Hints:
Blueprint lengths: L10 E3 L16 E3 L2 E3 L3 E3 L9 H15 L2 E3 L4 H6 L4 H4 L9 E6 L15 H11 L3 E6 L1 H6 L10 H9 L4 E5 L6 H9 L4 E3 L8 H12 L2 H9 L7 H8 L6 E3 L6 H9 L4 E4 L1 H9 L1 H21 L5 H4 L4 E3 L1 H7 L3
Amino acid sequence: xxxxxxxxxxxxxxxxxxxxxxxxxxxxxxxxxxxxxxxxxxxxxxxxxxxxxxxxxxxxxxxxxxxxxxxxxxxxxxxxxxxxxxxxxxxxxxxxxxxxxxxxxxxxxxxxxxxxxxxxxxxxxxxxxxxxxxxxxxxxxxxxxxxxxxxxxxxxxxxxxxxxxxxxxxxxxxxxxxxxxxxxxxxxxxxxxxxxxxxxxxxxxxxxxxxxxxxxxxxxxxxxxxxxxxxxxxxxxxxxxxxxxxxxxxxxxxxxxxxxxxxxxxxxxxxxxxxxxxxxxxxxxxxxxxxxxxxxxxxxxxxxxxxxxxxxxxxxxxxxxxxxxxxxxxxxxx
Length: 334
């Protein structure tokens, strides 16, 4: 379920009619969290926790290892708390992916009620060990929880718990389609997190996803909330611009559909861009389709670099761009 507006189309890179670079010499390599990637691309955490996810995550991991990019997995809550389908995650550890992100949710690191299981440092380490992760991604999905009939509604204390985990292991904090503001980024930086995944509006609307689940369950209140807050949040390009000045690595996700979108994100200051939907659809088809989709993304990135005269990623970070549409209203000219 996509949001109603496509914000990345508002970022227009300035064409360079004389590139003064050969296409074959363009270098897409980048360093992210101390690891060298062949391109500034992350397959963001999407799936796991059910039998068929073994096949899908194996394809994603094998393709990511071959192309030389980063990979995240879906929430590992059920695996580390209940032992449910751990093989749907551990299959990723078999492949030499250059950078891997484990994944747990912020609502699960604080008590949601009497007797509810809480993810602490032991479970967080287990989530990382399960896939051989380099960092733990803690996702913020409170909008989604508000539309779920069974959603977790407690948030007080989550910032301190994120800081407690960040003091013991490398932590990345990611949103899930509603974006991170500079104020939240500053609070998280003060708690020792290593970086951010912006994940703003313009891609999958998880309020919309949960809206349809609420309809199926007859949860009338949550149906109304999902409809009302369908497009709630900070646009992805805006969130990137909010976070970059904080000086920590930023991954731009939320609506990244092409290599041109990756180039747009890098031009705004992101260290890498995260994509999910298109790669997931390819992985559900075959390993070859997954490889092909990733190679297409990298090739489109190189085309955008060529047409802006960018020999390297640092060059791309310096290209001029114009903001249009709704994003311009949010940010104004660069």
